[in-house]
Amino acid sequence: MRTQICTVLFALVIGMFATGFPQTPPAAAPAATAQPQPPLPNPDSHYQLGPDSLPREGVATGELRGPFTLPSDAYPGTQHTYWVYVPAQYDPKVPASLMVFNDGQAFKNMDGDLRVPNVLDNLIDRRELPVMLAVFINPGRRSDQPEATPQEWGDRTTNRPTEYNTLDDKYARVIGDELMPALNREFNISRDPERRGIGGASSGSIAAFTVAWERPNEFRKVLSLVGSFVNLRGGDAYAAIVRKSEKKPLRIYLQDGRNDNRGVRPDNPAYDERRDWFLQNVRLVQALSEKGYDLNYSWGIGRHSQKHGGAILPDMMRWLWRDHPVVTDPNDAVERSFNVPAKKGG
Fold it and tell me: Which DSSP symbol is given to 256?
């Protein structure tokens, strides 16, 4: 048997020298028809709303008032639509805290990823947040332009790109000089900037940061979901601006995902780090950390969406408002009870 194997191998070698080694690989057999590859796992698939973002039995429900229309002098010819969430515990005799949400239509959407009214109902009920009014304000638009919707946030149909992405004080004027006077005429809102916050998602996030940056004596809490701190209109400059500026009395919570927009666009496959959302969020956190800001952040696996931010929104709000006043007297039965609705007409 061994002799037969050697004979066969010898014959093969002689044959190769006789014909020459092939210079190119032999033609491959016809490939099988390509089979469709299974889709990659959706990085947002594990982010789900928890019980604090859903209605709970026995929890008093706040009232959503509006829509109201706010004419703008900061952007002549435009107007802003807004709604006001009034918690069941609001007492006009007692100054309330305030949270403003840009892209209001998305944050108040009770079928969406954020559902802020539910979050506020639940956390105020358990005294995990102070009694807080919330304003949901849409980007400005001309009267002939459509309102932003959960499907079209207004980048192609409203003044959103100009208002939210530009690093100037105009949108801060909308909030500070136009919205706040209108609110103060109707509600008893605390004048303490520590009791005022502003937040948003994507371009609404950088707009929120800009308002607080420009008006730290009016707003000192910032909530940012997948913030667009990128070069849409120079927003990637914020990390350098933070480093060279005096520290401001702000508290900031940023959230982003590793699968956010990463600097490659369909019309330009070349990587542009100035348009890398995740990288620029990380850089801003590094700059804020170096300056010693009161800062928190959460880096997930998600895309440029509100799935991750919505899932952790109750915790983000708890952290931002973690130092609201409490009573430590163990005999204070009111402090140890659920936050009951205010009496009507009280």
Answer: E
Question: 265, exposed or middle or buried, with CB in 10 Å at 0-12, 13-18, 19+?
Answer: exposed
- Quick one: which H or E segment has residue 296? strand 294-300
Within 8 A by CB and 6+ apart from 60, the residues are: 87, 88, 89, 121, 125, 340, 341
Outline where the chain has alpha helix (H): 2-19, 104-107, 116-125, 160-165, 170-173, 180-186, 203-214, 238-244, 277-290, 307-320
Domains of the chain from N-terminus onward: 51-320 (3.40.50.1820)
- What is the pairing mode between strands 63-71 and 79-86? antiparallel
Whether this prediction's pTM lies above 0.85 is answered by: yes
**What does the DSSP assignment read for 72-125?**
-SSSTT-EEEEEEEE-TT--TTSPBEEEEEESHHHHS-TTSS--HHHHHHHHHH
- Interval 198-225 mean pLDDT: 98
Amino acid found at 240: A
C-alpha–C-alpha distance, residues 241 and 233, integer Å: 15
pLDDT digits (tens, 9 = 90+) for 270-296: 999 999 999 999 999 999 999 999 999
